[in-house]
Fold this sequence. Notes:
By secondary structure, the chain is an alpha+beta fold. The protein has one domain: Glutaredoxin (3-Layer(aba) Sandwich). It contains 6 helices and 4 strands, in the order βαβααββααα. Strands 2-1-3-4 form a 4-stranded mixed sheet. Strand 1, helix 1 and strand 2 (31-35) form a beta-alpha-beta unit. The longest helix has 16 residues, at 93-108.
Amino acid sequence: MTAAVVIYDGSCRLCQGSVVWLSRRAVRGRFEFLPCQAAERRARFPWMEERACLEAIQLVLPDGRALNGAAAIPEILRRLRGWRWLAPLFWLPFVGFLARPLYRWVARHRHWISCLPGSPRG
């Protein structure tokens, strides 16, 4: 199976910490992690605007489809040990309704959140 590629803001401590958290729980071979700022990201995914991957996590699936932000979360959860059961919850209308604005808020405030005590850091 080809791994899904998680593209994240490599200069964000919250994002770095999230990648560490994900990598510890991921089913082996299900993910590859790539900072948005990496030359490899630009070479492999030239169609992806840097602005987009600095604003929200990007998940490029093995079939080439790309999901971003809150839309990527259920697909990420499906590939994690012990967390797969949460993915179907995102099909519920109210969860999807809340997930998008909540994700946008966290993404906009991620640098501030990474300074809080107890926040995940890389």
